[in-house]
Amino acid sequence: SSDLSDKEADELMKHNVGIITVIYSTNCGSVLQALAMQDAYSKLGCNVSFISTINKLSALSYKKEFKDVIKALVSRSSPGAVIKRYRDSRQFIREHFHIVDPSGAERFDLLSIGSDTVWDVTSPYFLESQDVFWGLPWDGSKIVTYAASIANSPYETLDSLKYPCESIKKYANISVRDDYSFEYITSRADRVPCKVCDPTLLKDRSFYQGFCRSMEEAGTYLLLYLFDTPSAAVVDEIKQYAADNSLKIVSLGRRMPFADMHYESTVVSFLSCFNGASAVVTNTFHGTVFSLIFHKRFVVLDYQKKKIENLLHDLALDQRIVGAGIEAVLNEDIDYTSVESKFSELRASSIGYLEKCVQD
After folding, report:
1. What's the Cα-to-Cα distance from 184 to each of 64, 280, 305, rounded to whole Å?
2. What is the pLDDT of residues 50-69, one digit of tens each?
3. Which residue blocks in the chain are alpha helix, DSSP H?
4. How crowded is residue 325: how many other Cβ atoms within 10 Å of its Cβ?
5. CA 227 to CA 60: how far, in whole Å?
6. Which of 44, 87, 123, 250 could tie 221 with a disulfide, CB 3.0–4.6 Å?
7. Chain centroid to CA 130: how far?
8. How far apart are CA 320 and CA 123, in angstroms?
9. Whole-angstrom Cα distance, residue 145 to residue 350?
């Protein structure tokens, strides 16, 4: 605008941020981390867009939807519910995110890579868009990372590729969310990255409750958010706890045949189910995170996931991870005053890192 001084125009340009992360997904954790990243940058005065990472292997593709509908027909579950999940997921993304083609990335003053396992060089999806996820076409002096992860990629596989080490050496600022990624970058790029929290933890429950709807139709319930069907012994424990506490059993995402009710996993149903639950049984990272955010009684079935173990260890809640004995752990109180105090410290240091990225 002609009304702006050169200095004011420059300041506005500095606040144009393009985020590079997983967004076109049916995984609610991926979409919610993007939502939290967008809000965090917006609170710092930035105009936020997302660089498209859509490719033929994206989870929200029509090909994947067709396969899931066929699977529902074969299993005699509800194909209509599957179609609605995909439609609702696409609509949420359209309504809440501004997505631009990678060819337009040069116009941003700052490109922010992460969160998520965007540097997983064993994943066909991430390899398909490796140029975008590593920021290869662009000037590294305007690239920062937030909570980026190499997942479980073997170091030797990363070392066999030219671009990982070259890329991380050129970024303006770099942060990761896990020890494994931290050690790789420290040893290969001769720089010490910041450790930051998962973006979903940047926001408290009041932020997420703004997206929730009433779960009145479910009554009081025990929520199951599991990527795998538990063993028969654990199923018996779940049923017993629900019966002892007069709770319905509600499954979210993966359908559990012994559950009283089931919800397809969309952002709204995911947040609503966690918000309304009396207790939660999960084996996922974001299932653990949102049990904590919504201050729920919960247990994590032990699948030896390092990032869950690290999070709960930092919160002195290691005992929430169980192989058996669900009822005893669910009956133990959690000191959420202490949890929130630790979350506040994590948020403050992580937002401090983002402030540095915007100001540099």
Report:
1. 33, 34, 19
2. 999 988 888 777 788 788 88
3. 6-14, 28-43, 62-74, 79-96, 124-128, 130-133, 155-159, 163-170, 179-189, 205-209, 232-244, 267-276, 285-293, 306-314, 326-330, 336-359
4. 11
5. 18
6. 250
7. 19
8. 30
9. 12
